[in-house]
Amino acid sequence: MFTPKDKYIWATNIGFLIIMNKIVTLTTAMIIGLFVSLATTSYAETNTVTSTVTGTTTVDKTPPTASAPNVMINNQDVCSTGTSAAVQTQVFGIAGGTTIRDLNCERLKLSRSLYGMGMKVAAVSLLCQDARVFNAMEMAGTPCPYKGKIGIEAAKAWAENPEARPDYEKWLKENDLEAYEKEWKNKATTWGVGLGSLAMFLFLL
Q1: CB 3.0–4.6 Å: which of 37, 106, 117, 149 could bond 154 by disulfide?
Q2: SS3 per-residue string spanning the chain
């Protein structure tokens, strides 16, 4: 049988246990609520990160270049010279080459070949196609051959056919009598007007 004292102790212990149980339950609930609140706050936060990156990138690459072609002329007995050029821009490039004929060089080589074969008159005639040679021969008193004629006969033939001269345009200007007379008339008129004006000016003084 329980005594009243035992009942009191028993009741006290049970009450203490009930209170402790409530305290533990409340504490547990508070801890759980705290964790839930922290988790919710953690997920609800918005983090904004702003960063500025500055850098320089160097590309080691050779720009495109238009190279002028090398025009090769292996034969030295050819009167031609090679020339080439190239232009390069940021968008496109172009290159090209060509050969240029030297007509005077060809004339000299052909004349030398004719002279070597004994065709002296033909060699001189070929050189006379150059106006400088033609004038030099004329000044020396040995006119260039004209259709098989040499010497005085050639000089007469050239005088009768001046249009065949290599310096015909220059010769025409120098031997145009009408133009020569007009030029002198113009000069005479100019001098006459000038002298008349001067005389009038002196008379007025």
Answers
A1: 149
A2: CCCHHHHHHHHHHHHHHHHHHHHHHHHHHHHHHHHHHHHHHHHHCCCCCCCCCCCCCCCCCCCCCCCCCCCCCCCCCCCEEEEEEEEECCCCEEEEEEEEECHHHHHHHHHHHHHHCCCHHHHHHHHCCCHHHHHHHHHCCCCCCECCECCHHHHHHHHHCHHHCCCHHHHHHHCCHHHHHHHHHHHHHHHHHHHHHHHHHHHHC
